[in-house]
Automatic annotation (TrEMBL):
Belongs to the band 7/mec-2 family. Flotillin subfamily. It comes from Gordonia aquimaris. Residues 187-208 are annotated as: Disordered. This is SPFH domain-containing protein. The keyword Membrane applies.
Length: 376
């Protein structure tokens, strides 16, 4: 938007054209937010606050007069406070990265030469961290005066420029290391030879023990074979005995099975047929009995019918006898009725006696009688 500016997260916005509202600086510093700026009357510039890296390579002379080629790297940036931003802006706003890295390298190179000149090669090699810390401490004040802070200072390499001094210093250690390495190799060879001898001895012991075990196994096998050969007939006899016993058990089981089959195939059907014949015979006998009873009843009914048919004649003969007899009847008609009733009663008694005399004698049980009655 026209007249409104917002710096990046790693930038500081510098607004010039009027006296600063904070601390009386030459310009206003805005970090982390935007601001309206009056066009034509104010000028806006941006100062990077990102991390920068400066590399230095410096030839330094130790207290022994030995020249060393030292390489180092410095990580630096603009400080986050307003004073640091103002100081850095006044010095690096036009050519920020190049000028900042160049000036930083010059500051550290000077302090590096100074501190290396106060140390020996042995101290520098053994105490490289101490060297870096002293150079960093010596450079902080000057870096702060130009608005910069240092995050780290690392010495990358130290070279004696082919003088051989460092190699000479290292020679005793190298020789010592080589001697120790040779001793270790000799010890390792000795241990290896010892281990090899031990392995050969163990191998011999193993082979000997294996031979002994093989001999023992062979002896036990031969003994077992001999015992088996001697026990062969006895074992065969035992086997034959077991076979006979198993065959006996099998034969018994087959006999029981055959018995069950005969019961199922012969006995059970015969019993069933006998039962059937008995039931049929009982049924035929009962039928004959029922028929006899029915015939007897039929004959008795026929006889009763004949007697009944002759009853009037019998009553008439009785009446004739009464007529020829000298009877005196009292009570008029009632007396006559009584006489006739007596005659009929005698005729019925005569009929009953005739039935008892001439009826067929058939013995019928209650069940047959019930069947005859139902059929009648």
């Amino acid at each position: 938007m026209l007249g409104y500016y917002v710096p990046e997260p790693d930038e500081a916005m510098l607004i010039s054209g009027k006296k600063s509202d904070v601390g009386g600086g030459p310009f206003d510093v805005v970090v982390g937010h935007g601001r309206w700026v009056l066009p034509f009357f104010r000028k806006v510039r941006f100062l990077s606050m990102a991390m920068h890296e400066a590399q230095i390579r410096e030839v330094c002379v130790t207290t022994q007069g030995i020249q060393l080629d030292v390489r180092a790297v410095i990580a630096h940036k603009v400080g986050g406070d307003v004073a640091s931003i103002v100081n850095a802006g006044q010095r690096f706003i036009s050519e920020q990265e190049n000028e900042m890295n160049q000036l930083t390298g010059q500051i550290f190179s000077g302090h590096l030469r100074s501190i290396v000149g106060s140390m020996t090669v042995e101290q520098i090699i053994r105490e490289r961290d101490t060297l870096a810390r002293q150079v960093l401490e010596a450079s902080k004040r000057e870096m702060g005066s130009i608005g910069l802070v240092v995050d780290s200072f690392q010495i990358q390499s130290i070279d004696d420029m082919d003088s051989g001094y460092i190699n000479a210093l290292a020679a005793p250690n190298i020789a010592k290391v080589q001697r120790e390495a040779a001793v270790e190799r000799a010890r390792a060879d000795q241990e290896s030879a010892k281990a090899q001898q031990e392995s050969l001895r163990n191998q011999a012991d193993y082979e000997r023990e294996t031979s002994i075990k093989r001999a023992q196994i062979k002896a036990e096998t031969d003994k077992a074979d001999a015992e088996a050969a001697q026990a062969g007939p006895l074992a065969q006899a035992r086997v034959n005995q077991e076979i006979i016993r198993e065959q006996s058990v099998l034969a018994q089981a087959e006999a029981e099975l055959r018995e069950q089959q005969l019961i199922s195939e012969v006995v059970k059907p015969a019993e069933a047929e006998a039962r059937r014949t008995h039931i049929i015979a009982e049924a035929d006998a009962r039928a004959v009995e029922i028929q006899s009873a029915a015939a007897a009843k039929h004959n008795r009914i026929a006889l009763d019918q004949q007697i009944i048919e002759q009853l009037p004649a019998l009553v008439g003969e009785i009446a004739k006898g009464l007529g020829s007899s000298n009877l005196t009847v009292f009570n008029g008609a009632d007396g006559v009725n009584e006489v006739m009733t007596g005659v009929v009663t005698q005729g019925a008694a005569l009929l009953k006696s005739l039935q008892s005399e001439f009826a067929p004698k058939v013995i019928v049980d209650d069940e047959v009688a019930d069947d005859i009655d139902r059929s009648a």
